[in-house]
Every structure is written in structure tokens, then in C-alpha cells.
Amino acid sequence: MNYGLYLSASGVMVNAHRQDVLSNNLANVNTTGFRPQFSDVRQRPPERIEDQVADFGVSQHMLERLGGGVYAGRHHTSFAAGAPVYSDRPLDAALTRGDSFFAVEQLDPNTGQPAIRLTRDGRFDVNAEGELVTSSGHRVLDPNDRPIQITAGASVEFGPQGQVIQKDNQGVTIREDRLQVAQADTARLQHLGENLFEMLDGDSRELVAAPTIKPRHYEASGTNAVATMMQIVSATKAATGNANMIKYHDLMMDQSINTFGRVA
Question: Largest alpha-carbon pair distance within the chain?
């Protein structure tokens, strides 16, 4: 086996994966409350060391000093709070802390049962059943894990601590609920798409007793477009460089077999 070919191939695959992750971040640069992801690049040990195989004295020590190439490590999600953007839309709410989330209900695609998910997307709406929902149609929950019902014909506005205030056409408050704002261990959250996060350790939420939100605002995406473009360029250069090394190794093998081998 051509050891250099193997190392270069690993560089191509890892950096192609980085391009995919970063491109997804860039595609969501305008997605409300989006949390960008990043993929680590880890050095891989030589095969004998990785598989804990005994050293039988075979002369591979020089190759092993080159390492075993690289591999894609685990994904990291940035939970830094995005900038609040004023919208003057009464059903918009932005969280002010990066480790806080709105609790919503999603039907689990595997079981069909409702499951509690977390989201930073505070652009809400009212569905045909009169329930407060996210922009993806998931029902928003109150602190008791119940969907928030909106009275037909009522105007709705949010208070600075997550109050859901409903008023009649005379401006009189007829009902008041509260958005559930919860904290969770961000290291144990898994991105599901649709701006939702699943808690990997079961229901590990801790309700925030006195949350602070910015009514009539929404949270901008956490993606920095310029920085992400530069990272994509860097990953592209790394993938291209490794692909060129594959060509060089292929050329050397061709020369070794069809030129030097023929002379010998």
C-alpha cells in the first residue's frame, strides 16, 4: 500500500466534510436563532498503535513517524447569543442569554409520540387551531409543558419576562400565559434540524424562573458570513492540496512500475 496516498486521501475526505459543515452554516446565515456547527480535525495514530498490535520488529517505524493521517472529530455547536434584531412584530421574541431556550413540542418521527425539544427561534405564529407555534409549526409550551392557546380575535404581545398577554379589541387583558424558557447542558444537545435541539440525557431542562427576553425582536443567526467564507476557502485549499498530492503519488507509482521496473 502507498502510505502517502492513504495520508493524502484522509486529508481530502476530512476537509471535504469540513466544507459541508461550513457550507451549511453559510446557508443559514439568515436563519433566525441558528447555531453554527464546527468540525474538529484530529490527528490519527498509525494503524499498529491504533489497533494496539505488538511490534514484531517489522521495519515500519519510519512510516509510523508520519502518523496515520487525520480524521473528522466531533461536531461543536456555538451557543453564543446572536444579536437581537428589531422587527416590531408582536409575535417575535429574542432570548438574551446564549444558554437559554424556548421549549416546544415535536412529534418524534420514529415513535409518532410528542417529544419536548429546545429552540432559539423566537419568530412565533398562531396555527389554525389557535395555538402558538414556531416558524416550523411546532407548538410552543408554557412552564407546565402545555401548548399556549390564543383566544380567537385577541391581540397578542410578549412581556419582558416571557409573558404572553392577550387583549380584546378594547385593549383589556383577557388572558395571560408565559413562555417556557429553560436551560440545559449545551454539551449534551444534539442538533435535529428545523432549529431544534434534542436533549441526549433525557429531559434535563431546568426552568428559568425569571427569564429576560426582548419583545418585538428576533435573534439573528450565529453565523458570521465573512469568517465562514474564509474558513470554507481554507478547507477548500487543504482538500485541493491533498488531492494534488494523490496525483503526485499516482505519478510516482506509474514511474516506478512502468519506467524503473521495466529498466530493471
Answer: 99
Per-residue model confidence as pLDDT tens digits over 162-221: 999 999 888 889 999 999 999 988 888 988 888 999 998 888 889 998 899 999 999 999
CA-nearest of 158, 91, 163 to 121 is 91
Which of 150, 132, 130 shows the shortest CA–CA distance to 141? 132
- Please, are residues 116 and 213 in contact by the beta-carbon 8 Å criterion? no
pLDDT at 214: 94
Report field, pTM of the whole predicted structure over 0.85: no
CA 9 centroid distance within chain? 26
User: How many other C-beta atoms are found inside a 10 Å radius of the C-beta of residue 140?
Assistant: 23
Euclidean distance between CA atoms 79 and 36, whole angstroms: 8
